[in-house]
Amino acid sequence: MDWHPASLFQRGKKGNWYAEMTVPAEARAAFGNKQVRLSTGTSDRRLAERKLHDLEAKMREKVLASHQQSRIWQPDSPYRKAVELLGIEQQPYSSEYQPEIDDVEPIPLSTPPQTDGERQDAFEKISAFAFNLLAKRARHELDPEVAGVALRNGGFPPSEDDVHGLLADVAKILRIDGQSSSECLSQLLGRFKAHLAQRVEAGNLKLRTSKDWPKYVIQFLDYVGDLPINAIEAKHGYSFAQELADQGYNNSTIKSRITAVSGMLHFAETKGLIGTNPLHGLKLSTYGVRKENYRPLSDRQLTALFAIPNLPQELKYLWAILIATGMRLEEAALLHTDQVNLEDVPYFDLRSAKVKNKGSARRVPIPEVILPLAIHLKNNPRSNDGRVFSFSMKTDGKSRASELSSHWRKKVKLEVMAPRGPGRFTLHSMRGSLKDKLRDAEVSDGLNDAILGHGQHTVSASYGDGPSLKRMQEALNKVSHPYLEWIKEMTL
């Protein structure tokens, strides 16, 4: 089909934005309209633009489904001939939940199937009925169903060869032919999203991954075209990787995008839609530039950061927690007051927070240098929803602290303040700074890793609860932070 790109339009000056796409000419009769529209659910142009790719895929799914459904029920379609010959137009082959009546309604064979699962169910229903009739004929049973089929067949019951030939034609139009599916990428995407949502609910996939992977699949689809999934080859993966490299993406990002597409094709493989996943095991080490490591910040650089003129107080507090505890930026930015425990050995409780990995779900001791700050934030949260900080939130559940921090960090020329070397300086560099400071204070690597929430992959790490809070706090208290002297003057 000749697809047209989707565009955005707004209903009224303050209304929601809608995605709109022209239906290909060959599908308009089946779809019943020249245009297809879906609401973005937002009046914010930027948010609407982010949703456009996903909505375009959904609109294509709707058009393709109606087109395929129309083809199946054409007067000369083998599917329609079989259903009408057997007189089973009202026989249900599946069911569908109807939210309007809060109940499940059967789907009759006169309503052509749309999904692969429905096509398989419909074919099995038709086949079972047909073979049941053949069995009755073989037993010379006088049956009204047999008589009805004979009447609709010109007075003669269809032979066994006729039935097998008709079922073969039905299987062909329904794509139930034992071969790989010709379902296109855009058609499979909707089912893949539902699969990812189920994995999130089961707790074996991060919500962010479930949101990112469909975006990367659409990026792949835009590059290679809406190909049938059984037409995807390894060369398409390599070509897409090269395209991303040419756009300046680093090797790690390229691998993550290919992994997303490979994930959908693996899903297709598990459903029997393709024989093998063609993107599995691609060798991508030479594509894109290698990601630079983070360089730790010196005390001189840290002093300059905390002395930035007009630095927002909220960022100053956040950065103080980062350098003193080694927490990741989002771990600290999303803290709630009930995660700030000030009893006995004070700590930040990340055990039920959204964190990077299992090792990151931990208790982080609060060192003495920032204890007045922790008490102040516990007693004076900056957000009305219980969060310690008031950074605005993004749709993926993360805060905008990273963008804000990046903006203010660039006001200090950190590279000029350090000897030339590999790597780059970011706010994540604070974790490296604390790791070095702990090592200089002769803190063991195991204790160092426990504080920072680094996963430990030794056998012994699988046993016990790790170092105590007291030991970890004592280790953190060994570190000097001359750029945090201002905390001593805080009002609790």
Helix content: 40-55%
Order of helices and strands: EEHEHHEEHHHHHHHHHHEEEHHHHH
Overall shape: elongated
CA distance, first residue to last residue: 67 Å
Q: How does the major sheet shape up?
A: 3 strands, antiparallel
The number of distinct helices, counting runs of at least 4 residues, comes to 18
- Rg for CA atoms: 31 Å
Number of domains: 4
On the 0 to 100 scale, the average pLDDT is 84
CATH domain class name of the largest domain: Mainly Alpha
Strand order across the largest sheet: 1-2-3
Would you mind describing this structure in some detail?
By secondary structure, this protein is mostly helical. The chain is built from 18 helices and eight strands. A three-stranded antiparallel beta sheet has the order 1-2-3. A three-stranded antiparallel beta sheet has the order 6-7-8. Strand 4 and strand 5 form a beta hairpin. The radius of gyration is 31 Å and the shape is elongated. About 3% of the residues have low confidence.
